[in-house]
Amino acid sequence: MCENDYFLEEFKESYEHYRHLEKLRSGHITFFFTLVAGFFGFLGFLLKNGSPVSDWTMFVGGLTIVFLQILDTIIYASIRRIGDARAQHAKTLQYLREKLSNDHTIVNGWKAFEGNAQISVQIGAEITLHLFAILFFLAVATGVFFALNRCNLLCWQGCTVLSLSLTIFLAHIGIWLWLRYHK
Fold first, then answer.
1. 49-58 long-range CB contacts below 8 Å, 24 or more apart?
2. CA-CA-CA-CA torsion sign (53, 58, 61, 65)
3. 81 pLDDT exceeds 60?
4. What is the pTM of this model?
5. Segment 135-154, tens digit of pLDDT
6. Which of 120, 124, 94, 92 has the alpha carbon at shortest distance from 14?
7. Residues ≥6 apart with Cβ < 8 Å to 110
8. Which is nearest to 11 in space by CA: 81, 118, 98?
9. Which of 32-36, 58-62, 101-105, 115-119 has the highest mean pLDDT?
10. Residue pair 181/99 in contact by the 8 Å Cβ criterion
11. What pLDDT was estimated at residue 71?
């Protein structure tokens, strides 16, 4: 086995890992948005009658949003780590491309990444998850304060949901800072 054959095999393996990581990222995002769409569909079903919502329904709805916040934070951490691994594979592919001569048509026909388009997909996914973390927290805070002003929600229910939501939101920020600045 000559050196170019070795580099070609490394290139193929790294490219397979790169594509696998793209599929993982897409699967995570699809799973998250499916759950969010299902939640809002169920919420729309509950609110379509226009009848007043009970305290326990609001409490369970708040806890569901807290669950979505937890999932948002976990998926963000996963997406961020996948992005880091993809970036390393992209560097490996670029290095192997330079090492291999131009007579290997299989290498020249493959694209490891399409410039800024792949970077923007990663950044777009991360920003979307950040926005959902903010929106979930604001939804819980607004819902709790709206319910407390109507005097329908027990104080411990509202405070429990709000404190859980705030804790998870702060954890999301902490994970973001740690993954961004800790190498």
1. 55/147, 55/152, 55/153, 55/154, 55/157, 58/143, 58/147, 58/152, 58/153, 58/157
2. positive
3. yes
4. 0.75
5. 888 888 877 777 666 655 56
6. 92
7. 11, 15
8. 98
9. 32-36
10. no
11. 92
Q: For the beta carbon of residue 143, count every other beta carbon within 10 angstroms.
A: 21
Copy the structure tokens of residue 13.
């393996």
Crossing angle of the two packed helices 3-47 and 55-99, in degrees rounded to 10 = 160
Sign of CA dihedral 39, 44, 46, 47: positive
Q: Each residue of 96-145: pLDDT tens digit?
A: 777 775 544 444 444 544 454 555 677 888 888 888 888 888 888 877 77
Distance CA(146)–CA(139), nearest Å, equals 10
CB atoms inside a 10 Å sphere around CB 153: 23
- 176 token code pair: 């973001």
List, as one string, the DSSP characters of 107-171.
HHT--S--THHHHHHHHHHHHHHHHHHHHHHHHHHHHHHHHHHTT-S-HHHHHHHHHHHHHHHHH
